[in-house]
Inverse folding.
């Protein structure tokens, strides 16, 4: 199985290069369970199969039923659009079988990843000693960071390892944070938001009340820099002020909005991010890295090492048993719950080095400017209502007279026609249209066609 197969290599590479040359790639379509079950029937068996036939199963039956996140008209959820450089280098990474657990095994890869993390730390205004690792995404980053927040808080208060504690979150916090707290056995202190935005004043009131309710102590607070549904940025400065005044760990989930650090006119909206004790940014969202790529940073990485370093005799070699300096021989496995990992930050490192940060600044800014122009277009269109001014790249639209069924039917028509992939969302209890602009290839003509489709029968 491990012997080189030149014919197989050529066929796969031909398909990869063909896919990379498509501009745009196919948008894709929805798949049906019955057709996919039929296509996959007998694909895996005891005997080998012709690689060309297996590749055809993918290209003809599987790939068409995958909606392409890197299509400019993929405007649902929070899309991803890796650069060609990043996608190509992701192939290099996969072909090289790099094991990015430790400095011992992958010093060069870890050093390159750390160069990117240093860039992010500098953009955020974190201190020179800040550091961390790349993880699979915001969910893994939030889980890893909040374990450290919980355990550090218990230690600060002199509590035993099993003592109940609380972490303050807003009622708009990402679903992965709620899931993390359930996994950790930590009770959330849910802070009501004003206009969907956590403020320092609301946090102050909630913490004061929590101090009188006889419940478990609060050890941390989570703020969001770019909510998924609407791209709203919390009052990071106000939240940070409350966290510092009460000696609470401040975790900032900037999985979506962290890319705005590259753009001067957007950077000011993230004022206060420099006070984070831990910070999550997802380059596979608005920084054009391949899935899956999340960046996790700590203000003081030693606190994370104290929580995440795994102790086993077979790991002594990577943990300085020979007297090596743990601050220079950096082990990514010491900063998150993982052990085995691919150095997933390398494709981003390659793309940043090839294109330069100015190109990233301009590409990121394109999404925000497209959202602003779309907002003005919606305001000027009879039958449509802009639900709030976009802070980042999400535009929420009400279509007069539509029911939830109308929005979903419209979404299906757009995908079936190959126009766009847009999924409705719910805003304040009402189904609405939601457009998320991240791809630098989104054109004004594309947006105009989508907006026109919303009012065709108005």
């Amino acid at each position: 199985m491990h012997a080189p197969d030149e014919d197989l290599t050529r066929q796969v590479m031909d398909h990869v290069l063909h896919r990379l040359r498509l501009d745009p790639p196919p948008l894709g379509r929805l798949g049906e369970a019955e057709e996919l079950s039929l296509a996959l029937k007998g694909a895996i068996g005891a005997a080998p199969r012709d690689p060309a036939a297996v590749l055809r199963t993918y290209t003809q039956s599987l790939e068409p039923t995958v909606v392409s996140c890197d299509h400019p008209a993929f405007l649902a959820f929070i899309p991803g659009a890796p650069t060609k450089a990043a996608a190509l280098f992701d192939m290099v990474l996969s072909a090289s079988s790099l094991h990015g657990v430790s400095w011992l095994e992958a010093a060069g890869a870890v050093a390159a990843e750390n160069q990117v993390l240093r860039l992010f730390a500098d953009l955020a205004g974190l201190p020179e000693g800040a550091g961390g690792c790349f993880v699979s995404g915001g969910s893994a980053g939030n889980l890893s960071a909040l374990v450290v927040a919980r355990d550090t808080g218990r230690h600060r208060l002199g509590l035993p390892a099993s003592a109940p504690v609380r972490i303050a979150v807003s009622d708009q916090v990402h679903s992965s944070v709620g899931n993390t707290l359930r996994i950790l056995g930590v009770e959330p202190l849910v802070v009501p938001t004003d206009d969907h935005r956590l403020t320092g004043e609301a946090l102050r009131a909630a913490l004061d009340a929590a101090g009188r309710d006889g419940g478990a102590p609060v050890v941390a607070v989570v703020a969001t820099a770019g909510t998924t549904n609407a791209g709203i940025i919390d009052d990071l400065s106000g939240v940070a002020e409350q966290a510092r005044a009460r000696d609470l760990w401040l975790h900032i989930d900037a999985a979506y909005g962290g890319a705005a650090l590259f753009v001067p006119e957007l950077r000011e909206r993230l004022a206060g991010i420099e006070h984070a004790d831990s910070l999550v940014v997802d380059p596979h969202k608005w920084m054009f890295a391949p899935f899956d790529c999340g960046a996790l940073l700590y203000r003081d990485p030693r606190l994370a090492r104290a929580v995440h370093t795994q102790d086993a005799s077979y790991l002594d070699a990577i943990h300085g048993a020979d007297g090596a300096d743990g601050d220079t021989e950096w082990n990514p496995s010491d900063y998150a719950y993982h052990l085995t990992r691919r150095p997933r930050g390398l494709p981003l490192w390659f793309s940043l080095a090839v294109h330069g940060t100015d190109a990233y600044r301009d590409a990121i800014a394109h999404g925000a400017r497209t959202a602003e122009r779309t907002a003005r277009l919606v305001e000027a269109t009879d039958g449509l209502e802009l639900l709030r001014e976009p802070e980042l790249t999400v535009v929420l639209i009400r279509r007069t007279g539509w029911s939830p069924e109308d929005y979903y039917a419209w979404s299906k028509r757009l995908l079936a026609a190959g126009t766009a992939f847009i999924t409705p969302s719910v805003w304040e209890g009402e189904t609405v249209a939601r457009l998320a602009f991240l791809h630098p290839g989104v054109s004004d003509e594309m947006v105009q066609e989508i907006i026109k489709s919303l009012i065709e029968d108005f």
